[in-house]
Amino acid sequence: MLAQITLRDLTGREVVAQFRRASLGDIPEIDRLIKLSARGLCRDDYSVEQIEAALGSALGVDSQLVRDGTYFLAKADGAPVACGGWSWRKTLFGADGGLADREPQSLDPGRDAARIRAFFVHPDWARRGLGRTTLELCEAEARKCGFTSAELMATLSGERLYRSCGYLSQGSIQHILPGGVAIQFVSMCKRLAGRQSGVR
Questions:
Q1: How confident is the model at residue 102 (pLDDT cuts 50, 70, 90)?
Q2: For the whole model, what pTM was predicted?
Q3: How far is CA 118 from the centre of its chain?
Q4: Is it the case that residue 34 has pLDDT exceeding 60?
Q5: DSSP code, position 46
Q6: Cys-Cys crosslink for 187: which of 16, 55, 78, 170, Cβ 3.0 to 4.6 Å?
Q7: The domain that contains 94 carries what CATH number?
């Protein structure tokens, strides 16, 4: 276990969410969580058509992150409530279904920014600190590997979290999804304080 936070469920009962590294065996649960999160939390910012087109391509599981050991899963009462990770590879966003966009080359911590990747929270547990705790885990590990900055491609729904955690917008992009559906994302970055040396 890497971290834990105490939450209250919808009935007011206290539960503990525990964070650990995801394993390949977790992928089916992570996939279900991502779909629940996107369909529940993105609907104020995107159309149903955009959300469904994004799932599995722009939004979804990137199993490379799991294999690299840089993807985290939080569970409460044995059920997945949040996931997210970071990467020392060049790929900025996207799921296994968007393999044409994969850029697996290693980044140079002295020159490049670490990637913050694929954050999703169960709609029933949104805005309770799960995303922020996951982000803190990612940033701490990136710093240990020598990175002094981080960047990400945020959904319009996720932008609010990242902005509250110190990320600055670098402008929006229009990304073309399967079927020609366009969706807006926001490029964001942040300086990471306190460079540390380390190995992956």
A1: confident
A2: 0.93
A3: 3
A4: yes
A5: S
A6: 170
A7: 3.40.630.30
Ordered DSSP codes for 21-36: E--GGGHHHHHHHHHH
Note down the domain range covering 120: 3-191
pLDDT confidence band for 200 (50 / 70 / 90): very low
3-state secondary structure of 49: helix
196 part of a folded domain: no
- Count how many residues are written for the chain: 200
Q: Judge whether residue 69 has pLDDT over 90.
A: yes
Distance CA(115)–CA(145), nearest Å, equals: 12
pLDDT at 197: 39
Does residue 117 belong to any structural domain of this protein?
Answer: yes
Question: From the CB of residue 142, how many other CB atoms can be counted at a distance below 10 Å?
Answer: 26
Split into its structural domains, the chain has a count of 1
Q: Is residue 75 part of a domain?
A: yes
Q: What number of H helices and E strands is found in the chain?
A: 5, 8
